[in-house]
Amino acid sequence: MLMTFAYIKRDSFVHRLDPRVKLVLLFAFSFAMYQTINFWVVLIGFLISLLYYRAARLKWEETKGTWRFVFVLVTVIVCANFLLSGGAVVPGLDVAKEHILFSVPFLAFQRHAPFIGLAPLHFTVENIVFLFTQAMRILSAVLFAIPISYTTNPGHLGVTFSGLGVPDRVSYAIDLSLRFMPTLARDFSVTLDAQRARGFEIDKLRGGIFSKVARLAPMIVPVVIGSIVGAEDIVSAMELRCFGIAKRTWITELHLRPLDSLLIVLGLLWFVIITTINIVGAIHGGPWGFLHQQGIPQFLAP
Question: Model's pTM, two decimal places?
Answer without folding.
Answer: 0.73
